[in-house]
Write a structure and sequence with these properties.
The complex is a heterodimer of chains A (about 475) and B (about 450).
Chain A (H helix, E strand, L loop, with lengths): L2 H18 L1 H9 L4 H22 L12 H19 L1 H6 L5 H12 L15 H16 L1 H8 L7 H8 L12 H25 L4 H12 L16 H14 L3 H8 L3 H5 L2 H21 L6 H16 L14 H13 L12 H19 L8 E2 L2 E2 L2 H25 L6 H12 L20 H15 L3 H7 L1 H4 L4
Antiparallel strand pairs in A: 1-2
Chain B lengths: L1 E5 L3 H12 L3 E6 L2 H10 L3 E4 L5 H6 L7 E4 L4 H13 L5 E4 L9 H8 L4 E3 L1 H14 L5 E5 L4 E7 L11 H7 L5 E7 L2 E3 L12 E6 L1 H10 L9 E5 L3 H9 L6 E6 L2 H10 L4 E4 L5 H6 L7 E4 L4 H13 L4 E5 L3 H9 L4 E3 L1 H17 L6 E7 L4 E7 L20 E8 L2 E3 L12 E6 L13
Parallel strand pairs in B: 1-2, 1-4, 2-3, 4-5, 5-6, 12-13, 12-15, 13-14, 15-16, 16-17
Antiparallel strand pairs in B: 7-8, 8-11, 9-10, 9-11, 18-19, 19-22, 20-21, 20-22
Classes of the chains: A mainly alpha (about 475), B alpha/beta (about 450).
Chain lengths: ~475, ~450
Amino acid sequence: MNRKMVFYTCGRMLLLEAVLLTLPLLTAIFYRESCFLSILAGVAAALLCGGIIMLLSKPKEGDVTAIYSREGFIITALTWVLYSAIGALPFVISGEIPSYIDAFFETVSGFTTTGASILTDVESMSKGLLMWRSFTHWVGGMGILVMVLAVTPMSNDRSMHIMRAEMPGPVVGKLVPKAKQTAKILYIMYFILTLLEIILLLIGGMSLFEAMIYSFGTAGTGGFGCYADSMGGFSPYLQWVVTVFMFIFGINFNLYYLLLIKRFKAVFSSEELWTYAGIVFISTAAIAVNIRPLYGTASEAIRHSAFQVMSIVSTSGFATTDFNLWNGFSKAILVILMIIGACAGSTAGGLKVSRVIMLFKSVKCELKRMLHPRSVSAVRFEGKPLDRQTISGVAFYFAIYVAIIFAVFLAISWEPFDFETKFTSVLACFNNVGPGLGAVGPAGSFAGYSWITKLVLSFSMLLGRLEIYPMLFMLSPSVWRRQM
Amino acid sequence: MKIIIAGCGKIGSSVLANLSAEGHDITAIDTKSEIINELTGIYDVMGVTGSAVDQEILEEAGVENCGMFIAMTESDELNMLSCFLAKKMGAKNTVARIRNPEYNDRRLDFLRQNLELSMSINPELRTARELYNVLKFPSALKIETFSRRNLEMIEFLLGEDSDLAGKNLHEIRKKYDAQFLIACVERGDQVYIPNGVFRLEKGDIIGLVASLPEMQKLLKMLNSLRRQAKNILILGGSKTAYYLAKMFEGGGNTAKIIEQDEQRSLELTEALPKATIIHGDGAAQETLMEEGLMTCDAFVALTGIDEENILLGIYAAQQKVPKTIVKVNRDELASLAKKIGIESIVSPKEITSNILVQYARALENSSGSSVETLYKLFGGKAEALEFIVSGESKITGIPLKDLKLRPNILIAGIVRGRRIIIPSGSDDIEPSDRVVIISAGNRLSNLEDILL
């Protein structure tokens, strides 16, 4: 592997983090908060680390500068780890999250758009740091490297490898022939949708600060808020706006592009979109009926049901009510939704609806083959037959996915919590949902876990966000060998 | 510009690589998903898997607003049909590869008109033409022709006993009384655009620009003018071989083709009554000797396998065949073959890519002086371009020595009516001239681009 280029690229990425930190910096200045200095220290750390890494690994004349898929994977994984490591510094320096491990967990949770928190008292945090926490959602949602690709002139022919490693979904396609152009279009659409949500929230009476925090959380499908009861204290209008936008950000962004270029037929015949909408609708209806007795009016039950379903299926993790208090059936649905997640190519986590469809269809095909051994059949998705590689890729991904859930669950099983808490902690982190059930439910937090568990869960969040492979490759010694 | 390439085989993917390096937005269509996966992994292009005559696939590739649609599939008919569809769906320009001899005669114009093709391209015919040019002027490793052959640039190797080696360009110009210009020099892996004090060395390959008579005069003075090849031995009965043999018919020339496949040999015999067709294994030395390798003027290896062509080319060169040309399609093998002593190489891929790159550049600027011809020299390290000056511009009427040119640019020749000017500092460019530019490391699509 070309180590020099990997580190050099990561160094450049860190410089961009310093730029990203200016938004919370401005917020802190605006509110005249003392965390201003600690954020500034974060900026300095990012510049310093990035600069040193770049200096040490600067490619000399004649060095090979090409990067291939292997380097792309490692650059992606390493950048995400470095971003979290540096991004955690302002929390520690300001003293608002004294332990570095806690701050690291919180930042990973932010970038991976998980929204799992170790904070027990969000409301006492300074506004600048809250802004940073939520802004990481926004950046992590569409992708750090996709952003770099869109805004910096570094792109070359090979930048596709970096983008592919970061974009979620079984098949990564481009919108337009050029990777850089694709990244730009994605971010522009992302920005406009976010802006739209901010405006709608402002109309509903939120302050600009709150509107930004909640819009960033929704856009990245993250789930960090600025109140202990998440969205519970807001008006029904605001809750519905967030519900709708969680749905919107759970849709494959390619479809928005198809809308823009007026290919409506392709959008409305999208199998994944309809399945996604179907899952949301059926789950909402089932839960609404199930929880009707807990709430005063039917509309309240529907609102809570819709919000929670959207929050979980889009892997955001906001809450308007403590769903931990619901009965087993509703909770079971939520756990299943955690695993399914939203559409490929969106900002959401989880397995992705398209993978679930492909899995079910290939299972059906296999079963048919058992009954009619000579039958020949193809798995079709979005109107096209899938090639064998994609099908086996999805099956393989699912196998690894399950294996990782078991492994992480085993690794944290010694913690003194009940089964439900621990199991849903793993699901909530690995699928980038945020809150789980039991002690880590919407009213609880991850603060009770030991530091080892926090690290394990941070790692599983990164695994989930980057769709497993980049993080696994980073740990494989064979990839790091200089030769071959 | 938005370009769609349908069919990404050997030639299609080479065209894709070249146009992608030019910075165009490219979408590739191929029926094989493996090919699409591979190409999108290497180049920054978009891929669509499916048939190029499927309306939905074309729509998905975005044919309605593409500037250029290039059909390069195996089948001529498929290419024509998909170009026709693409044109109907809104593609501005369509280019089809049509290489079957049946279509490549008078009927081609009819086809082109009625299918509204902007251009049809026949790599085999173009290759044969290039081969023919070199065989008619064997001193050259390669010939690039400009302005309908009024002006040429030949690549010429300075051998062990060359009179030019060790002299700088000033001295050379003084010594030889001919209208010529040494426009570029390849030494090792480097390409130079030389100035007056540049000293040539043996082993250099120089690009020589002159008109054909002046070129012959100069080479005669240098004692390296070789006589035209009249008896040629062609290995492999491909379409290129057919076109080449056809060009060699008549005028006391003879062409002999050795082909391994019996059926193909019979077909060739019917199509080429004047040529001699041998059915046999050309890779066997015995066959080559028997068919007169030692007495032929030139040996051309055109089998489908690059390696076989190279090896037999080396063998022929060892047998002191006056001129050996081999067809090599893979770029990396071509540079290797050059290193081990094969002087003349033709690459259908490169020829086709050159034409399409030139066409795309010409489309880019509808106004101004656009590219008329474009050749990539020395494996793409330099380019030779011909422009027609459209009208008055900031480049016309000024003595060349007063023009502020970008680095690594040379004005190598001007064709004014029937006059050929090898320019010096006091010449100027006038409207409707044809101007030949040699450039390294610049991307020119307009004549004005040569200015700083």
